Amino acid sequence: MAGVSQYFYDIAEEVPDDKWKDLAHQLGLKRAKVSAIDAENRYLKEKTMKTLDTWRLKNGRSATEAWLRMALHDADVGWIADHVIDGVPDEVEPPWKSGVQEEGRQQTSTCCTSSHDVSYSNTTLALTEAKGALLGIEGDMNQLQIHDRHRTPLEQPTSSQSTCGGDNRSPQGGVTTGLLSSSGQFFHKGPTVYPMMTSPRGHALIVNNSIFDGNLSDRKGADVDVKTVFSLLKSLGFTVKQLLNKSAQEMLKELEHFSKLDDHKNVSCCIVFLMSHGQEGCIIGKDGKTVMLKEIFSLFDNIHCQKLQGKPKLFFIQSCRGAKVDRGTVSPRDAPDAAGGLNEQSLPSQLFGTLQGGEDVPDAARCVDQPTRTDMFFGYATQEGNMAFRNETQGSWYIQAIDKVFRQHAADTHVADMMTMVNKMVAEQTAHCENSNYTGGKEASEFLSNLQKNLYFFPGL
User: Three-class SS string for 227-247?
Assistant: First the structure.
């Protein structure tokens, strides 16, 4: 059976002399790397082969058949994809099926690890997975998802004892690996796009409470969310700090400290994940006391956090916002992130305070150049008054959806569009719970944004 090298060789044979650099750029190779490949290799076929191998080793699980196919088309040599990729006979195992060893899978060959920490073997996999292959990695490319061991399924039953309504996916929670990189040609800048080219991109803080004092239930599965978010943020180029199991006062103190970091002036963006039990307009510390969300958000406004003025500040809140269960459809095991009690307050009110009636009048004596709060994005796991659901082995629906969508689309999609995809993915889930009060529960995530430009992360650039 031909290996990946032979497969790449077949592609290299077809690439015209004036197109290999276009292909390299579409595969995300930087200009300096392309120049080095050009200088180090004499023949066209060698240059193209080196380009494909470099792309594969650099991107690991993200080096997908779909990406290669798109790159070929974007380089105006799409006929190569049709001829070489689609020309692999169905009865022959495609060469890109050699993949990272799966835990518990018996191996019949020796596996070696490259200097890029990607393990490859010539293990034979089922032909039924062939069209979903990742180049050199196991996976389901038709759905742009990673193999079961690595992806974060949203419909998994909450408890390992529950089997109703679920599929046969691995019950392990875990971190999805791999994130598509932006191509050099996709990168664009201008007055409608936030500049996001600092290294690191920005600083991020993960606040997560999973163990509580008193009568509040512990949030099983929340540790999976922390690992998932940490990995995603690192992949997007952020430094990440974790704040785990803190009282309300400790949370507020650490958030204030984070907002005052001097290094915010040297980076492009700031992200905060808040994950705990919650009620409308507030999040709950491990001591059962609450912190108002608008108090947290005010720490990062243009008055209190001038180092982030004009820069995007993103907040993602995984918590309940009330005690009501949204019953959209009947399809009953997931646990709510609620602490009881319902404080009726509108989303604009909790973000910006209660709006008072009155007449707008000019104030010529006081000249300001911007509102107090700008360039902020607020993402919520659920709508006001409703519960949010968390799977006890796979993590929260909302966090799983963010991880999956961002890994697949951050390369060329701005945040608002990605979060619209997240909304759709979360809304498709239905709770499977032992507690009949939650059975059939639904969840609809939402976001409020006063970003003034499109926000792209440009991962890999």
Answer: HHHHHHHHHCCEEEEEEECCC
